[in-house]
Write a structure and sequence with these properties.
The complex is a heterodimer of chains A (120) and B (111). By secondary structure, chain A is an all-beta fold. Chain A is 0% helix and 51% strand. In chain A, strands 2, 4, 5, 6, 9, 10 and 11 form a seven-stranded mixed β-sheet that branches. Helix content of chain B is 0%, strand content 44%. Classes of the chains: A mainly beta (120), B mainly beta (111). Chains A and B meet through strand 5 and strand 10 of A and strand 3, strand 7 and strand 8 of B.
Chain lengths: 120, 111
């Protein structure tokens, strides 16, 4: 059974940083591209970033470029998202998600999410 | 404003059929990119409901179906049940924005 478990969220001041982690199990992690998707309180889903199975290719939503960095450690079956220069509007539940196909397609498995709250 | 437009809400009585539309443009759905649909029950993570326009993952009842035409896609739910009450999101890739896009979401209420 595929399991994705996010961690690392919490309360952070504006301008601060966090590192979010997503521990994967139940599938060959190194064979699948992964993504981060966030959801602000009471709002819809917003794609954040994706990384290829090898880690050699990354992509970001425009509003996150330059502030967020996605990475992965295939030896540890773990996905990361470094979030920097945080703003109040970055407050959201951050989900990690696995591609259905190797490096494309829908997101067929999601974690339970980790809440990031940006506030002074 | 989302690149993919969904109605904010739909409703129906148990047993009825409802449809949820997802309207895009020539840079996403109209370019041939597949549409995927997710169901999000209250306080839970999204769940893949329909992929590649009209395919159901194993375990999804055949009451749920998807279609795509031109720059739009639709999700249909027949035999509405109370447990279907949730938020539904469409997703597609946008070549202009070079990333994945979600619709704004549609809240389904079962009357």
């Amino acid at each position: 059974e595929v399991q994705l478990v996010e961690s690392g969220g919490g309360l952070v001041q504006p301008g601060g940083s966090l590192r979010l982690s997503c521990a994967a199990s139940g599938f060959t992690f190194s064979s699948y591209g992964m993504s981060w998707v966030r959801q602000a309180p009471g709002k819809g889903l917003e794609w954040v970033s994706l990384i290829s199975s090898s880690g050699g290719s990354t992509s970001y939503a425009d509003s996150m470029k330059g502030r967020f960095i996605i990475s992965r450690d295939n030896s540890k079956n773990t996905l990361y998202l470094h979030v920097n220069s945080l703003r109040a509007e970055d407050t959201a539940v951050y989900y990690c998600a696995k591609y259905y196909y190797d490096n494309s397609g829908p997101f067929d498995s999601w974690g339970q999410g980790t809440l990031v709250t940006v506030s002074s | 404003q989302s690149v993919l437009t969904q109605p904010p809400s739909v409703s129906g009585a148990p047993g009825q059929r409802v449809t949820i539309s997802c309207t895009g443009s020539s840079s996403n759905i109209g370019s041939g990119y597949d549409v995927h649909w997710y169901q999000q029950l209250p306080e839970t993570a999204p769940k893949l409901l329909i992929f590649d326009n009209s395919n159901r993952p194993s375990g999804v009842p055949d009451r749920f179906s998807g279609s795509k035409s031109g720059t739009s896609a639709s999700l249909a739910i027949t035999g509405l049940q109370a447990e279907d009450e949730a938020d539904y999101y469409c997703q597609s890739y946008d070549s202009s924005l070079r990333g994945w896009m979600f619709g704004g979401g549609t809240k389904l209420t079962v009357l």
